[in-house]
Write a structure and sequence with these properties.
The protein is α+β, with helices and mostly antiparallel strands. It has helices at about 10-30, 40-50, 80-90, 110-125, 140-145; strands at about 1-5, 55-60, 65-70, 90-100, 130-135, 150-165, 165-180. The longest helix is centred in the N-terminal third of the chain and has 17 residues, at about 10-30. It starts with a strand and ends with a strand.
Length: about 180
């Protein structure tokens, strides 16, 4: 029923619009209520599909119903590098994005996509995999903990973003990590 595909420079254009649409739909809904413009999501997609990054999409009947993306810590924003590198070094893969359309949740897609990205990062010689999530009981935290991620104690960040309806909001984010053995 579902098929996972690694998206890279060789096949990214065939998945671009489906990724954008799915990303916007996932993050417009609860609990996120975020308003992502097409050009913003295209930038994210380009970052996740460039050499050295990992982008995995879940397909159902050729439609993208889930997405996930990771990039090396060296490619992250400076604020994330400053928080993580003193603790774990630079041999870290950052799990930047994960989402599944509501009607396709509960089938293990998110876990499968996380497992595939972690496996690729391990095979590429990275020592750690990390993710950042809100402290407000995120679904992502539960998924990552199920595959062995733990809270990186003492590392937190305040993030601001635009919500649906043009209001700005901020929340506290925590980091989870997994040693890749």
């Amino acid at each position: 029923m579902y098929n996972l595909v690694v998206v890279d420079n060789t096949n990214k254009e065939q998945y671009r619009m489906g990724f954008v649409k799915t990303y916007q739909t996932v993050f417009a809904g609860e609990p996120y209520n975020e308003d992502w413009k097409e050009n913003e999501v295209n930038i994210i997609f380009d970052d996740l599909t460039k050499d050295g990054s990992i982008c995995v999409v879940a397909l159902c009947n050729e439609d993208i119903v889930g997405f996930s993306g990771s990039l090396p810590l060296s490619e992250c924003d400076q604020d994330v590098k400053n928080l993580i590198s003193p603790v774990l070094g630079m041999s870290v893969f950052y799990n930047a994005e994960l989402g599944v359309l509501p009607e396709h949740r509960g089938h293990g897609l998110a876990k499968q996509m996380v497992d595939q990205r972690v496996s690729i990062a391990r095979n590429n010689g990275f020592h750690y995999s990390i993710m950042r999530t809100t402290t407000n009981g995120s679904m992502s935290q539960s998924i990552y903990e199920k595959v062995g991620f733990e809270i990186l104690t003492g590392v937190e960040q305040i993030v601001s973003h635009e919500r649906v309806g043009e209001t700005n909001d901020s929340d506290k984010r925590i980091f989870l990590y997994k040693e890749l053995k």
